[in-house]
Amino acid sequence: MIVCVAEKPSVGQYIAKVLGAGTRHDGYFEGNGYQVTWTFGHLCALLDPNEYNSAWKSWNMSSLPMIPERFGIKVADDKGIQKQFNIIRSLIQQADEVINCGDAGQEGELIQRWVYQKAGCKCPVKRLWVSSLTEEAIAEGFRQLKDQADYQRLYEAGLMRAIGDWLLGMNATRAYTLRYAQGYGKDRQVLSIGRVQTPTLALVVKRQAEIEHFVPKTYWELKTKYRDTIFSAQLPAEEGEYAIATQEYGQQLLDAVKDQLFTVTSVTKKKGTEFAPRLFDLTSLQVECNKKFSFSADQTLKIIQSLYEKRVTTYPRVDTTFLSDDIYPKVPATLNGIKDYFPQVTPLLSLKADGKKTQTSLPKSKKVFDNKKVTDHHAIIPTGQRPDNLTADEHKVFDLVALRFIAAFYPDCEIATTTVLAKAGEIDFKVTGKEILKQGWRSVFSDSVQDEKDDAEQNILPAFVEGESGTHNPELQEKTTQPPKFYTEATLLRAMETAGKTVDNDELRDALKENGIGRPSTRAAIIEKLYQRKYIVLKGKSIHATDIGIDLIKKIISPLLKSAELTGLWEKKLREIERGEYTAQQFLDELKSMTTEVVREVKSNKAGLICPVCRKGTIIRGNTRYGCSRWREGCNYAEPF
Asked: Sign (positive/negative) of CA torsion 399, 404, 409, 414?
């Protein structure tokens, strides 16, 4: 008998239908030589500290760091989970072969492997790896099953992620709670520290501090209106300074041009193209849904996961915006499947996926199809199944995915950028405008579902002729510098993806993804955890750090725990484990060293203790030494560190 283990009951039920296993039993389906069962959530987890060492049950600084010699796993202490695990174990122990039908990603691989280990699996294990749950995709996946050994590095990366979270989370949380938390015993406030959640919180706290400490500066701009068009003065400025830093200087410039004729000195028009927006990975979809519909990252993940399980979109937990070449021949069928819902598909239906550059060929661009940019899964696209029986929110998300996919096969948008230079007296002026010559892919998007590239207003200019001149209306405008903006969920997701760097360019963002903090599948959960622990709150669409969150970041002295860049380097090494460029043992050795260093820093830090001299103040940390908080009152305690 072949036992298939799916990631959840609904997926198991559909796999059973495809395989012809139609007889329902308690916890599994059977038929046609298969038994199809399922997990739900994390059936297994790493042991708790006291299950390694009874002395670790109590929170004592002397017991830190807690570093088990070997890590063990257990079945979750839940009656429903225990019952389903026993069913899985019973089936596996009698199986001739097991097929891992779990979620096709790092976390899904780890969940399944732990279940097989705990169930005492001795028979061969194969792996089903699919990017959609359509009947065709599942049937094809079963024809191309791989050996479990082919995914060993994926499992090792997931295992190291889990062990890393355990080591740093358990040890740092206990160390900082014991050292800095208020209260005693059960009333002690727990300071929760996480490998990804803490640097994410630090990003929010840092941005908030920049806003609160921002000092606005006033400057002036000289503009003039000629033929209902606003031109800006082109004035030299020192680096880091504004061209018009004082009102007096601005008034001199205004006086110098107000009685002068305004003469156009140059008109240049440069034609160009705009490419269709990229297909979605999970993060870009979460960003777009937050911008357009105010969906939280977690809400978007749940919706796209539901669309995947309803078989209308492909696997969602992806970090690429590209498709592999083998998808190209399937594009016509996919488009044909959604044609009744999207009239924009009609012009594409007569085109063939032959890869040739003819009028009857479906375009194949490197900006869409690139095997080098695809690893385990491709970008999120429609499967071609009819999107029936969707909720209103599911329709919104599906439409975004589908329209991006359709637009990828439309012509480029043709534009003309016009730059007009002019002069009034001795001062140069300039205006730039853009004109859309051919809509191309832009015609795919309706007014109700605008694409992000439509956000900027088009500055359409009238026809100017070099040498023309006339009167104009100059004006000196007072401006004030603006502070950075609070993070929204959209911008925080982008910051996590790029380890805190602000990047608008798609290519550069791709390069930084390697060092992003967290994974696409976990970032929403991290943000939700920060909300739940009351470290951040949502005010409108802006994310604000609470006093609790700010205080926690202030207390953390280890740069490892709150640096997005350092955590991003760690994520890079996990990806290198997946690719075989770094070993799990190397990473584990680093984890143990990091954990030991974090605990040592907390133990050796005297900040917050009662001053040994005056016994009234507390020890505070300076740049090179400790001092007393009552130094203004005359306490002279000082000690280098």
From this structure: positive
> Angle at which helices 392-407 and 282-293 pack, to 10 degrees?
120
Collapsed DSSP state (helix, strand, coil) of residue 461:
coil
Mean of all residue pLDDT scores within the chain = 92
Q: Are 425 and 257 in contact (CB under 8 A)?
A: yes
DSSP type of residue 525: H
Q: What is the DSSP letter of 547?
A: H
For residue 382, what are the CA distances in angstroms to 280, 365, 397, 432? 11, 18, 11, 39
Of 200, 234, 236, 235, give the one whose Cα is nearest residue 494: 200
Catalytic residue among 155, 315, 535, 582: 315
Contact by Cβ (8 Å): 445, 407: yes
Hey, what are 553's tokens? 């970041």
pLDDT at 448 over 60: no
Query: Which pLDDT does position 187 carry in this prediction?
Result: 64
CA dihedral 329, 335, 337, 343 (to 10 degrees): -160
pLDDT in tens, 261-311: 999 999 999 999 999 999 999 999 999 999 999 999 999 999 999 999 999
Answer yes or no: are the C-beta atoms of 436 and 414 closer than 8 Å: yes
Residue type for 170, please?
Answer: M
Q: List, in sequence order, the alpha helices (H) in 41-78.
A: 49-52
Annotated catalytic residue 176 = no
Q: Tell me if 482 sits within 8 A of 217, measured CB to CB.
A: no
